[in-house]
Amino acid sequence: MDWPPESPDLNPIELVWGNMKNYIRKKNVRTVDYLRDAIFEYWKTLTPEVCRNYICGIMQKMERVVEQEGRNIYEGK
């Protein structure tokens, strides 16, 4: 079965993971317990409004991909 090309930039959860990693990195986590606390602390920031913003941002990127006929929307930047 052929699978369509994938792009993490068009997947809202990938943006969440990236932002969570940045958040945790800034916390300078040193223990597993502190890591768990930081993850839960970040996860609580994911309100419906924040999630909606992630999704709306992806929709805008998808529109740009269509306009670019599938080409990289970041080229030339």
TrEMBL record:
GO MF annotations in UniProt: nucleic acid binding
Every Tc1-like transposase DDE domain range: 3-35
InterPro entries per UniProt: RNaseH_sf (IPR036397), Tc1-like_DDE_dom (IPR038717)
Chain segments annotated as coiled-coil in the UniProt record: none
Gene (UniProt): Acey_s0170.g240
Pfam families registered for this protein in UniProt: DDE_3
Name of the featured protein: Tc1-like transposase DDE domain-containing protein
Organism: Ancylostoma ceylanicum
